[in-house]
Design a protein that fits this description.
Helices cover 68% and strands 0% of the residues. By secondary structure, the chain is mostly helical. It has one domain. The two termini are 19 Å apart. It contains three helices and no strands. 18% of the residues are buried. Keywords: Membrane, Transmembrane, Transmembrane helix.
């Protein structure tokens, strides 16, 4: 009978967290720059603003740059949790599979 390979849970979860963090950094950067550009256009008067929606540059504009740190942190946590679930699900699948041959190991 062939050796059934298992996926190491913690290293895989860390890898998933890293990948999700990279995606989060990109999304946070896009969110912050896009929000800044929109607020500048509203402040200059190129774009109009609905009452109570956006008044242009202000404290909210600077707080939007918190997304550069906030979104990656949230996505890293989600990536770790999802990676843990995926690794456990893979290991359960391998345990009950009879003909699965993989190259992953503990």
């Amino acid at each position: 009978m062939a050796k059934r390979n298992r996926l190491a849970v913690h290293p895989f979860a860390k890898f998933q967290a890293f990948l999700f963090g990279l995606v989060g950094a990109l999304l946070g950067f896009i969110y912050a720059i896009g929000g800044l550009a929109l607020d500048i256009l509203i402040s200059v008067g190129i774009l109009g603003s609905l009452p109570g929606v956006s008044s242009g540059l202000g404290l909210g504009s600077s707080m939007a740059f918190g997304a550069i740190l906030g979104i990656p942190l949230i996505l890293m946590l989600a990536g770790y949790v999802i990676g843990t679930i995926e690794a456990h699900a893979y290991n359960v699948f391998v345990k009950f599979s009879t003909s699965l041959n993989t190259d992953f190991w503990d």
